[in-house]
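@channel sequence for tomorrow's demo:
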Amino acid sequence: MSEFDIGDVVRVQMPRGLNKRGVPGISVLYTTWPEARFDGAIGTVVGIEARSRYGIPLYLVDFTTHKNRVAIPWQRQWFREAWIVHGEEPQPQPLATEGALMAASGQGQTTIEGST
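structure tokens (generated this afternoon):
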């Protein structure tokens, strides 16, 4: 039974691991795969192939309707179920106008009156 349906919003999350320097990131087994370029991108499932080439279900994810901070090499890509998780569009956070997160006084100005 598939976990995702057509129209679901998903986020690509490739398998994690450590590189030879011990830095966490995408597993070294998958870094050269084309799917690794989509890591962290949000898209919508537009197609399901339940019995693909090796019997692994694949999901066609469309990234055109979402704003991603990841550089997407193309608009649609097939992904295994293990490489995608349910995701949501990031909600923009309001800017602080008062309180601890507000910029210090005078930080909004870039020049001082009378200086050259």
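heads up for whoever presents: The mean pLDDT is 82.
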